[in-house]
Automatic annotation (TrEMBL):
Protein keywords: Heme biosynthesis, Lyase, Magnesium, Metal-binding, Porphyrin biosynthesis, Zinc
GO BP, sorted A to Z: protoporphyrinogen IX biosynthetic process
Family affiliation: Belongs to the ALAD family.
Catalytic residues in the record: K202 (schiff-base intermediate with substrate), K255 (schiff-base intermediate with substrate)
EC class name: lyase
Residues bound to Zn(2+): C123, C125, C133
Organism field: Pyrobaculum islandicum (strain DSM 4184 / JCM 9189 / GEO3)
GO molecular function, one term: zinc ion binding
Source species, domain of life: Archaea
Name of the protein in question: Delta-aminolevulinic acid dehydratase
């Protein structure tokens, strides 16, 4: 292929031809919108995540979901937030049927039925008094997470969420065997229809900072590098994904998304038949918001470019806090 016979610019002449030959199409149906639900009345603004709130389980939450649904966003993942005094070493509020997530699941399913798809994050960090994702044990003066005890609590939490109306449960703690333990528990209790979206390749990333403020889930000591993946590794993600699929995961995930586009592509190339989600996380969201507020970037164009890149890399679903805004912008057409 040589110039002047071949002129690629002919297919870029105007927006009509660019749209006609575009390889990637972004749509609101690609999005899963993360929502924080909380105890008590009144929504609370999240200072580290402009435009995001902790929502009380009630009319304000219903209205917020209704507005997103009107824009074409029909998939949501719920995260619970509880006061510090309700937290304990085993994160028991996470599997309390009267906790914020089960209450929100019941309310939203009663209100919207099958018009929406509800995912529930399964982890303990939002509910433990130490902020880690599992049961902390101390041996010889050194702390560690008891993997096998932790996944039993994940299964307990998943059952509560399934019973409350979750369409999918989403284990995010990166414990070995968590998908198998949850699948076994769901099936044993008749929840064969409830799916699992596994946080399969979740990295120990600094991009989670704003989320940890939003969910009050930062660890009180140490870090999560003994259970979340090393950012230097890409092919290790294939092992994690393979294990989760073998254990019964219906959807697998790479988290974060923007700094791990290579991992998204790698996973999709090796498992093209497996639905793949990617989490456009809080730090990625907050950086765009901060740069836009400072006037450094065009927020609409940059946001849609980032989300398009995530989908182009191979993601079938994108968890993103930008979902309602992006859906609104897409109604006006892409800016490319």
């Amino acid at each position: 292929m040589k110039f002047p016979t071949v002129r690629p610019r002919r297919l870029r002449t105007n927006k009509i031809i660019r749209d006609a030959v575009a390889e990637t199409a972004l749509d609101p149906s690609d999005f899963i919108y993360p929502i924080f639900v909380k105890e008590g009345p009144g929504r609370e603004a999240i200072p580290t995540m402009p435009g995001q709130h902790r929502w009380p389980v009630g009319e304000e939450l219903i209205k917020h979901v209704e507005e997103a649904l009107a824009l074409g966003v029909n998939k949501f993942i719920l995260f619970g937030v509880v006061p510090e005094e309700q937290k304990d070493p085993h994160g028991s509020r996470g599997y309390d049927p009267e906790g914020p997530v089960p209450k929100a699941l019941r309310l939203l399913k009663e209100t919207f039925g099958d018009k929406i798809l509800l995912f529930a994050d399964v982890c303990l960090c939002e509910y433990t008094d130490h902020g880690h994702c599992g049961v902390v044990k101390t041996t010889g003066g050194r702390w560690h997470i008891d993997n096998d005890e932790t996944i039993k609590l994940y299964a307990k939490e998943a059952l509560v969420y399934a019973d409350a109306g979750a369409d999918f449960v989403a284990p995010s703690g990166m414990m070995d065997g968590q998908v198998a333990e949850i699948r076994k528990a769901l099936d044993a209790h008749g929840f064969h229809h409830v799916g699992i979206m596994a946080y399969s390749a979740k990295y120990a990333s600094a991009f989670y900072g704003p989320f940890r403020t939003a969910a009050a889930s930062a660890p009180k000591f140490g870090d999560r590098r003994t259970y979340q993946m090393d950012p230097r590794n890409a092919h290790e993600a294939l092992k994690e994904v393979a294990m989760d699929l073998e254990e019964g995961a219906d959807i697998v995930m790479v988290k974060p998304a923007l700094a791990y586009l290579d991992v998204i592509r790698l996973v999709k190339q090796h498992y093209p038949w497996a639905p793949l989600a990617a989490y456009n996380v809080s730090g990625e969201y907050a950086m765009v918001k901060a740069a836009a507020a400072a006037g450094y970037i065009d927020e609409r164009v940059v946001t849609l470019e980032i989300l398009t890149a995530i989908k182009r890399a191979g993601a079938d679903l994108i968890l993103t806090y930008h979902a309602p805004e992006a859906a609104k912008w897409l109604k006006d057409g892409t800016p490319f």
